[in-house]
Amino acid sequence: MIHDVLNEKEITLGVCYYPEHWPKDLWESDFQRMKELGFTYVRMGEFAWTIFEPEEGIYDFTLFDEAIEVAKKYDLKVIMGTPTATPPVWVTEKYPEVLNVSQSGVQFKHGARRHYNYNSEKYQELSANIVNQMAAHFKDHPTVVGWQIDNELNCEINVFYSDADHHQFRQWVKRKYQTLDQLNDAWGTVFWNQTYTSWEQVYLTQPTVNDSHNPHQALDEKRFFSDSAIAFAKLQADVIRSHTNTQWITTNGMFKHLDNHQLTQNVLDFYAYDSYPNFNKIIPDDSKKPLQDRKWSFNLSNVRSFGGNFAIFEQQAGPGGWVNRIEQPTPKPGQLRLWTYQSIAHGADQILYFRWRTATKGSEIYWHGINDYHNQRNRRIDEIDQVSHEIKKIGSSLVGSSYQAKAAIVIDYQNEWDGEVDRWYGDFIDQSQEAWFKAFQYQHIPVDLLNIEQAKTVEDLNGYQVLIYPHAAILTKETANLFSEYVKQGGTAIFGCRTGYKDLTGQTYMMKHPGYLADLTGSTVEEYTLISPLQERPTVSLFHGDPVTTEGFNEVLSLEDSDVEMIGSFDNAYYRGKPAATKRKFGQGYAYYFGGVFSYDIAEQMLQDLHIQRSDALSLPEKVEIAIRVKENRTFYILLNFASSDQLITIHQKMVNIVKEQVLRGDYIMKAYDVLVLESQ
Amino acid sequence: MIHDVLNEKEITLGVCYYPEHWPKDLWESDFQRMKELGFTYVRMGEFAWTIFEPEEGIYDFTLFDEAIEVAKKYDLKVIMGTPTATPPVWVTEKYPEVLNVSQSGVQFKHGARRHYNYNSEKYQELSANIVNQMAAHFKDHPTVVGWQIDNELNCEINVFYSDADHHQFRQWVKRKYQTLDQLNDAWGTVFWNQTYTSWEQVYLTQPTVNDSHNPHQALDEKRFFSDSAIAFAKLQADVIRSHTNTQWITTNGMFKHLDNHQLTQNVLDFYAYDSYPNFNKIIPDDSKKPLQDRKWSFNLSNVRSFGGNFAIFEQQAGPGGWVNRIEQPTPKPGQLRLWTYQSIAHGADQILYFRWRTATKGSEIYWHGINDYHNQRNRRIDEIDQVSHEIKKIGSSLVGSSYQAKAAIVIDYQNEWDGEVDRWYGDFIDQSQEAWFKAFQYQHIPVDLLNIEQAKTVEDLNGYQVLIYPHAAILTKETANLFSEYVKQGGTAIFGCRTGYKDLTGQTYMMKHPGYLADLTGSTVEEYTLISPLQERPTVSLFHGDPVTTEGFNEVLSLEDSDVEMIGSFDNAYYRGKPAATKRKFGQGYAYYFGGVFSYDIAEQMLQDLHIQRSDALSLPEKVEIAIRVKENRTFYILLNFASSDQLITIHQKMVNIVKEQVLRGDYIMKAYDVLVLESQ
Amino acid sequence: MIHDVLNEKEITLGVCYYPEHWPKDLWESDFQRMKELGFTYVRMGEFAWTIFEPEEGIYDFTLFDEAIEVAKKYDLKVIMGTPTATPPVWVTEKYPEVLNVSQSGVQFKHGARRHYNYNSEKYQELSANIVNQMAAHFKDHPTVVGWQIDNELNCEINVFYSDADHHQFRQWVKRKYQTLDQLNDAWGTVFWNQTYTSWEQVYLTQPTVNDSHNPHQALDEKRFFSDSAIAFAKLQADVIRSHTNTQWITTNGMFKHLDNHQLTQNVLDFYAYDSYPNFNKIIPDDSKKPLQDRKWSFNLSNVRSFGGNFAIFEQQAGPGGWVNRIEQPTPKPGQLRLWTYQSIAHGADQILYFRWRTATKGSEIYWHGINDYHNQRNRRIDEIDQVSHEIKKIGSSLVGSSYQAKAAIVIDYQNEWDGEVDRWYGDFIDQSQEAWFKAFQYQHIPVDLLNIEQAKTVEDLNGYQVLIYPHAAILTKETANLFSEYVKQGGTAIFGCRTGYKDLTGQTYMMKHPGYLADLTGSTVEEYTLISPLQERPTVSLFHGDPVTTEGFNEVLSLEDSDVEMIGSFDNAYYRGKPAATKRKFGQGYAYYFGGVFSYDIAEQMLQDLHIQRSDALSLPEKVEIAIRVKENRTFYILLNFASSDQLITIHQKMVNIVKEQVLRGDYIMKAYDVLVLESQ
């Protein structure tokens, strides 16, 4: 548990700080004001390699030693970042082989960040060395309590095509397949005469006409990218651990082509997420009732699935944006507080704001800190001050409590990665996950994410009444069996179109769909069609309800057994009247299959049929999110009003607002963006 | 004639098959089921180079020998593909000079297909060698009856910028122009100081600022690409013919930058087209009354113009798509049959479906075959079974019959290629061709395409009452004379804006437009303007009809002779009231000139004035296409219902539905997507 | 003054001509017809390097000597272009280092124009040499009166990344910063660990992940590009001046990344602009009441700010366009005349039309000259003939007169260049400049552009009653003081959001906004937010007027002094009711601050409050532009009707139409596109 690792008895706050950016005469007042704001942690060091090692083999830790001394004076604990996200220019000029390269061969140069590759032996050597020097230097410093490895692995770019990457991929493939025959089989190279007759012919995907690559190779490539990033983090973690067993290790972010579950469980002490809910203002969402900043609850649930409670190392503290991209508006009054509680609601036991003061130079002068350029008190500081006081009050109660969910959306990396290039199901995954999450949110049913690759036995699933696994194109016999057993024992499983037709190589089974799951669902796919944008979109009616427009894909189902119930059919197209959705009692539970992509409307309709247990302690309007957290025998309800207007809630049993130590019951008005933390009596 | 070449007495069906993809124990049942479906032909081998030649100089034909034996057992004739579309990785790794390169210098690597260039001497040598080995091996095998050269020449990519291409282009230019002075004249290099003073300075177009190249060089470049592809096909054809004179030779496809007329007439025994009408679902068409899948009738007419009746080597057999692109929905019930008859209606005497079974691996796992992954009977097999039974009945009657058309749309390659980079007329060609074709279709007037570059004398034109040549910017004095003679002898010729102002280099004549055609049309262009998207679009009224909006270009005409009639004028703009269209009796015929781009409405209005002879045997609704085929003294009417609904037709004279051997007269309801093959009595 | 330099007593006309393109037997009639059209000047030579120097070190001037002889015969004065815009292919093949290169490393090759870089020593040497040869040859030719250096510097491309550019940038940076510490400070390299530890590590911006570069480096890069272009022009000018002091020197164009003020004042005798108002038909403008071709008055005002009256070397003479881009429709009857007078109204004392005859070859066959391909009299020739006759009458009166403006829009290069990559204000500059210019235009208030970088003392500003400086993010203490002094002395200054928060490096001040200007405006920015496209746009009400929607940015202001007046507030968002605009009397004048981007509506509302002196001699409708020109004690009113319809004007005092020598008073109808040149009596 993270709070055991941190050895904290309460939820703690902190901030990111770059001592190297600011005149030293500001340090004293900066750290003093942090303490006044109730901060416990300060992160530093992650972009300072050249300060630590101004030239190869010459080290200088004085600047940070001094900063740490000042931090110590104000009782701040320091998290030290390893600086490998931004190699010095002396590294990249001397050893250009450490640079990352685009697929078409353009080498990324000094001038931004994350322009290195994970597989260069030289970069691994230089990285291990600087981390070794830093760990040796800081290991005995009691103010330094933990480490952040690198910064945002796979952010900015998550593909790598340097010579070192091509070379290491070849080794990776050799280890995985042992023989060329097995490689050729797995990649289906007989198609289009791609058969490899020597290991030396094997590369990561390369430039091709029309940018189309062998899809099985493309899937392995992402596995390799993930393994490379994890190995790079492990290299650093191992070095640090060779020096200390008291300073903990984490990394921050959550980006693509990275198995964060494996990373967390094999390398880190806990995971730290960077939460910027105002990104919703740069991501168009024309779906029904968009979740906007509330969608970050999905991301936080994902982080929770890596290994329980977690940290936030970068919590949005103001407007955001680089000079030339990602421009996010200013959070409205109350939103910084709301988003802090959103993190806590979903499992954050430690939160660092990004960052102390808005930078005055460089690409991120618009990625605002708590403080403005002018460094004077402002609205955001006031708001964080309030949060800090509240957390001081309730943080010891909440810390280490567990999020309660009776339902889970099932995720995995294989389909995420394979689906990236597969237009026949890839985009559906996000759409359906979001549709279901939205339905759960608006119905006030807390939901987890569950990585099925982590599930070893049916016990890992049994905690949930309902599992939604929308479009698992890749699905093995073992996973199918796991779901069958889960349903047999009383669980409910829901699948969408395109389920179960691929093996782990991304090749298709020579079976009726949904492949190994057909035994459980009792229905198969008679025929299917994608719905092209130039085509009319058929509607479907579920449970005799109103017709709902389908998008993306239609599967016409065939009921293979008499105990299978048609719960929905198509209203038009040449397959009108044919089954679109089925339900089957199987053992003690139910298996649902829907031959399409889930929209909010469809998820909402199916949800009515699921009868998930839920608390009747509160009546909430749609715009208020609820999180239920339990610790020992205490139950907390965290209510988050994402609306810009007042919202009426009704409390049906006696509750205590533990921030104000006030007993509440009956109707209550939550102000715009307000938060309520209740404990049931 | 193709059926003479094939030595068949009926229309034959077949399928594409990849024995190398499937376990051998499937072969027997696969071929047996092909026979049961009435198939005669099976194509194989075109992506199997590494199987034939696993390493340089080592050959192994056993796998295909065995497959051919099984095919033979079920009376299937084998078409063997030469495998040059996908070089082995041992070729491209050992001889990277064989790879194609983008204009900006990115080399296309192993991983997809068609990543080679036609001009590498090494690739020519390796290709000639493997074709030689194959021809030597298969020439005496009676089951192997013909060859497909390569696969879809110029598909995926139709530009080539490897060193070999630059080098060979220099030789090509030397042969064409003999002296640098003549090159400089032809390319107008005096403009922008582009004058060449040594042959070594000459390349294919290279990267330039704003991606603008010398347009005359760009035109020659396309001629060179076409010549290169034809020479590459001829290299292979010559090798095959040195071994056999009984096995015929073709290639398949129809792609850009390739003079298919020359290719067919100089290299092939007949042409084979790949017909995928469901591509209409990935090509947006916001024109009035879009033709959708019926637009493939235009393509088929184009193929017919290469050399009469033809084959289809890939007839759409299901949904289509690569993993990451070109996704086409599932054909609706009846459409596979409809499209098969569409091919026959326009001149196909042999049809192979693509492909037997949907691939389970590689980029094309969604390019569905007749059989699904699961290999069990499905709706598509039923439909093809029906077609096959029908063709067995009527194929001997129809085979070798000729398509009857009294009108033709005139095409050529020079304007197609020059127009690619010329925004002042290039896009108009397609728009006007489609507008006219649509007008002819909806008026049930069968129409041919006529490549004017193939016309040697006026006799080649005289078969048509009307010729439409929409926007021949490049037009020589010889062609102008040909049209004058044609009209003089009674033909009707129709021209659109931008006609006749360029010579064969793409330079403009120093003459009033339409240049050498002004003598025939009797009208010249007083002034003109393009219609920018930010500009109001004037309307034009023809034959005192309703105003029609013009798009793209307006030419204000001047009547140069008293016998010229103004048949339309502009309704607005500063040239309102001025002539927009003229008509002139010239000799026994008529010359029309329209100073704009043809829309469907304008083509439709002009069509009323043309009085083209047409059959009064049938009254048809708009959505039903008619093709009239004649053989000896028999006349066949093939009716194709492209609508998703029933259509009422009226048969005015006794006809026989030769599929059902049923006499028909009077009203008749064609079902959605249905086909009727009638013979007049 | 340009007319002193030209030594002309009247406004003169001319044309661009390429003798090398045309058969010599056309020259005689061409030059004769130019004379008949009243032309005085002919420009030639600028794309003829290979004719002058067919191989390295071999020179041949005979073709142009002959052409000049014919020009002389018809009293035409020749402007000779140096030919460096299009290097010969023998140069680029022999010395590929002279070529320009894209940021990602693609070298631009022979085939278009402007594919060279300014910093190659070899290109400088070759350029100096050919200019030297030409100057030596033509210096004594009395018909050759002046020189155009190169052609359209920085047109087509204005970034340069060849090795020579990287190398020279390193030298430029060394000269500017002297030490690496100062470089590191200026570029803020401590951010993201970009610290340079050796000069050899410094380059122009290079390819980076997500195409994001150090913004301070990116700003210096543009300064370097400008300096490089100016140095290249100066190199040539110095060579010419070493031969002659009677032939004047200019260059033509007006493109980005070039300080045209410096160029004009340090290198040229006067500036020559290329005016193509029909470009408005290829630039979408969805703003309110778009200015269309009238927007070229803004460009002409910009040119006037370089150094007073100027020349036009390319005045649009017909439709325009390359083969593959920039396609502009045909000017309507009257527009060529209108645009000629537009140039004169804003300060052109010499106008050359581009070009004599439409090219028959090359990329610009659609960039129409006065003459069509067919070379016969046309509508455009008639119109230019009319203009020429009119200018003969009034040109001596108008020549050298001065444009009168009481208001100016303040411009500078630092913000233009920095704003290019800064999404937090860059786009606002153009929007606000256009909004204000439009408001001035429609209110008939003549306006200048004023480059604040040229202003040394307050005297340089005092001529204006009002200065609008919309979004000067970069603003030094010195400039702030200049404005304070200007206002103190009675001027009115208007600023928009994002003013004053950056220093000359592009780093942000650690001050409240608007930084050093806060003392003048008396208001500071309490908080701000950008308005994302996914966000609702608040409205603002100024002077209790109607609410106007804001775009892009909102600043909430804080009134810092009791003498500051809130003149507008936000109507909604969480800052409703808070100040959006302030006004303060400061000394004798007023300072306005608006916390937003200026729209036409807002500029229009503020304009009402400014009480700018204006002439009451005329009442004009919106679509008619007025320019007031003064010379000695004569005042001229040039009225330009940009409407396609008749416009009623009222003349309140006796005026003379000096073209028709007609006294006018009272109502008068201007025809569509008509021009009136009035002199007050």
TrEMBL record, chains A, B, C:
Family: Belongs to the glycosyl hydrolase 42 family.
Domain Beta-galactosidase trimerisation: 405-611
Organism per entry: Gracilibacillus halophilus YIM-C55.5
Biological process annotations from GO: galactose metabolic process
Reactions catalysed: Hydrolysis of terminal non-reducing beta-D-galactose residues in beta-D-galactosides
Protein name: Beta-galactosidase
Residue ranges of every copy of the Glycoside hydrolase family 42 N-terminal domain listed in the record: 16-394
SUPFAM superfamilies: (Trans)glycosidases (SSF51445), Class I glutamine amidotransferase-like (SSF52317)
UniProt KW Iron keyword: no
The EC number(s) this enzyme carries: 3.2.1.23
